[in-house]
Design brief:
The protein is of the alpha+beta class. It has six helices and eight strands; from the N terminus they run αββαββααββαββα. The longest helix has 12 residues.
Amino acid sequence: MSKEVRQSVAQSTAGTGCYLVGRHTHSLDPKKRFTIPSEWREMLGNPKYVFVVPDRTERCLNIIPQEEMETRLAVLRQKALFDPQMAKVLRIIGANSEQLPLDVAGRIRVSDKLLRFANLKTTVAMVGAVRKIELWAPEALPPDEDIDQASVGDAMALAGF
């Protein structure tokens, strides 16, 4: 993709959501960091940081873009500050999430606790899930070169395509 096209994509998605698609596999470096692909960083507006949270139903992690997370947190800020149920929700989310800065090379270092949760040991499969990036142990996914047409068909039907 040319630089002009990437800039156009980044400009068109900034403020309206991100459309993260595709799959990339990266090794963890000796410091257990991995690089978020440059085209995805551009689509995210080259953020200073991202949020990483465990998935609700799968043994994977989610990278939530800064703008997406801030929108969701703004809704939570509308709730009563000392509401016991909301305090518990925020405590659980806060204790199990990370706000991670990207270094100049676009790398992040996810905590050992979250890496263990998703069984990420040496390699990370990053899957674009339209508005977020999922982080998987590669062995938990079908090979990248395979397309499961039945799953694609089911997903498209549920999405109303």
